[in-house]
Structures are given as structure tokens and as C-alpha cells.
Amino acid sequence: MKLRAELTVLLPREQARRLAAIAAFLVAQIERAEPHAPEAKAALAAIRNWGDCGRLTGRDFSDLVYSDDERGTLRRLSGAIGKPSEDGWNALTTATMYVAWLVYQETGEPMPSDINEVGEDSLDLLDEQLAKLG
Q: Most exposed among 70, 83, 103, 132, judged by the fewest C-beta atoms under 10 Å?
């Protein structure tokens, strides 16, 4: 079953709980090539936390992808181009941005334009990214 069909029938926080299992797989993939990956662990922790009814904002999630101090999964992805961890960072960034989109929808915070472009079709992209990882 496609990831989109599986997840979109669930409530947003239930989707995040399912995505936390995927994110854990991705963090393990990343850590095989990059043992020190605090941004990956932070993204996983936030996805788990929000899925378990934690109080995180959309901004908290946006900062996990890209932040003012140039940390985050997107920065790590750009540094992993051509390396074994690239596909893991790419998929983890997609998953984190999708959860950010869910959070912004729930909180009603003004959504940044790059998160506003995320939607359920991101799950199709994540499906493709996961297929590349096996």
C-alpha cells in the first residue's frame, strides 16, 4: 500500500507516530555513514514528541529543517550530496517537512512559503525516497 493511502486516513498525530517509525529507520541509515548526526536525532525526537501529543510549534519543526544558525536536516543534506547518507537525509527532510506542515495546520500559525508548498503529495515523494533506500 502506498504511504499516502496508509497515512492520510489517520489523524495528524497518528500520522506523525507512523512517520516516527520511518524516521527511526532513516536515522539508523544516516548514522551508518555519519555516526555524529544530532540533527537527525533531533528531527526524530520532535516527530515522536509531537505524535505523542507534545506541544511543539510549526516554527520548532521549521528550525529542524533549516534554522538561522545554519543547522538542520536541509543543511546536512546539502553536505551529504554524493555521499552514502544523502538518500537518508533527503527522506528525513521530507518526513520532517511533512510533519511541520501538519503542525502548522493544527496550530494555525502563519506557514512559511516552503512549508506551505508541502502537502499530501509529499508522502508520494517520501515513498519514492524510501524505495531508493530499500
A: 70
